[in-house]
Design goal:
Blueprint (H helix, E strand, L loop, with lengths): L1 H15 L2 E4 L2 H7 L2 E4 L4 E4 L4 E4 L10 E3 H4 L3 E6 L2 E5 L8 E8 L8
Antiparallel strand pairs: 1-8, 2-3, 2-6, 3-4, 4-5, 6-7, 7-8
């Protein structure tokens, strides 16, 4: 019986997020705060259609790319502390979500 309860929980989570349409490059450049790509890099929106890479190593200089260069590699788009668009498979378009998934903050140690 426990397996049925787990299955119901998964379907409830899937029902909480619905796809409303395609998110274009223009939408991302206007609304996004950060973008995560498939190579696990995070890019911050500069507000002028370009994105700058968040760099954690001190010796590496950050790259700047336009939205047209990044669009095909985008996995997740974040706006106001929630995911508002994501690509479900690598070769599909970026899908806009109706119910935004909240981001979970990591606990700081120290």
């Amino acid at each position: 019986m426990e397996a049925k309860n787990k299955k119901a929980t998964r379907s409830n989570r899937k029902a909480a997020v619905q796809i409303t349409g395609i998110c274009t490059a223009l939408d991302i450049s206007k609304e996004a705060i950060t973008v995560k790509t498939y190579d696990k890099r995070v890019w911050c929106n500069r507000g002028d259609g370009t994105f700058i890479e968040r760099v954690y190593e001190g010796n590496k200089t950050p790259e700047i790319k336009s939205i047209s260069e990044l669009y095909n590699d985008i996995k997740t788009v974040v706006k106001e502390y929630s995911i508002f668009a994501e690509r479900l498979a690598k070769y599909e378009s970026v899908q806009r979500l109706k119910y935004r998934r909240p981001l979970h903050a990591k606990k700081k140690i120290g």
